[in-house]
Design goal:
With 297 residues, the protein is an alpha+beta fold. The protein contains six helices and 16 strands. Strands 1, 2, 3, 4, 5, 6, 8, 9, 13 and 16 form a ten-stranded mixed β-sheet that branches. A six-stranded antiparallel β-sheet has the order 12-11-10-7-14-15, covered by helices on one side. Helix 1 crosses helix 2.
Length: 297
């Protein structure tokens, strides 16, 4: 007999909860904000909207289903099961945060603050959760392309929006950059790092770099097996070049970077605390990931 689905609610600590935890009481948090020209009632109202959304979504889960709840900070310690239906309650970025830990599970994004969130990934309202969950697993999904980085020591990083490779702080990153099957063209570079992004990432950081470069490359669609990559602030010198600073990566292409610094890192979707560390001489390849995020449309 097959197991009933498990609904896994993913959420994050609200700004209000973080303020009260840091300052001790509501009153002290209110005083801190007022001294900086802010009103705690605005923050508290967003907190209440999130709590109400979580309660409404929880009540919408079918009674025969199992349930679990995981906070964003605990995602790397949570074990997702194949039959899980993942319900992300919060912001678009929270869907990206959970994507790297999944392997084909359906994801339902619930927007807790319509109008404040773009709603690219959290596409539904709390009131819609009951109907969507009743229809699972037959609901249509979009298969969103992801990006992966694989180091020569088998370290692997997956992201939904983008992967950044560079120095951990504001130091210059030094490396050799090239493309697989590109006639062996490799260039030594010194830069602020390399950004490789997907069509989903084209609504965020990748788009800002793309705009700065004049938008000459066509942005990929979220479901398209194509990535864009940009070198940030490449520095020309007698030892380093600036001829390879942007391009496309179709499905089977790989961007190869060989480290020529004492330490570089790779992290995805802004989660620098969950980074792959690379040392001198190591090689990392970045390209389209074989896995997809299955997001309920």
């Amino acid at each position: 007999m097959s197991l009933a689905p498990r609904a896994v609610l993913v959420h994050r600590t609200t700004e209000y909860e973080e303020l009260v935890a840091h300052h001790g009481t509501h009153g002290q948090a209110a005083f801190f904000l007022s001294s900086r020209g802010r009103d705690i009632e605005e923050v508290a109202e967003r907190h209440e909207r999130t709590r109400r959304a979580l309660a409404e979504v929880t009540s919408a889960i079918p009674l025969t289903w199992r349930q679990a709840r995981v906070e964003r900070a605990d995602l790397d310690r949570f074990l997702f099961a194949p039959e899980d239906v993942v319900i992300v309650v919060g912001q678009d970025g929270l869907v990206a945060n959970v994507a790297k830990y999944l392997s084909g599970q359906r994801v339902l994004g619930i927007d807790t603050d319509p109008g404040r969130n773009p709603g690219v990934l959290v596409r539904h309202r709390p009131a819609q959760a009951a109907a969507l969950l009743r229809a699972a697993p037959g609901t249509a999904v979009d298969e969103l392309t992801m990006v992966e980085a694989v180091a020569d020591d088998t370290q692997r990083l997956v992201a939904l929006n983008e992967i950044y490779l560079g120095a951990a702080g504001h130091q210059t990153a030094r490396y050799r950059l090239g493309l697989e099957d590109d006639g062996g063209v490799v260039e030594a570079q010194a830069s602020s790092g390399v950004l490789v992004g997907t069509g989903t990432g084209a609504t965020g950081w990748l788009r800002s770099v793309w705009q700065e470069r004049g938008g000459r490359l066509r942005l990929p669609a979220p479901t398209e097996d194509r990535l864009l990559w940009f070198v940030r602030e490449a520095w020309p010198s007698p030892a380093t070049g600036v001829s390879l600073t942007a391009g496309e990566l179709p499905a089977r292409a790989r961007l190869r970077l060989t480290v020529e610094s004492e330490r570089l890192i790779a992290f995805g979707d802004g989660m620098e605390g969950d980074a792959v560390e690379l040392t001198w001489g190591q090689t990392v390849e970045v390209g389209v990931c074989g896995e997809r995020l299955r997001l309920v449309g």
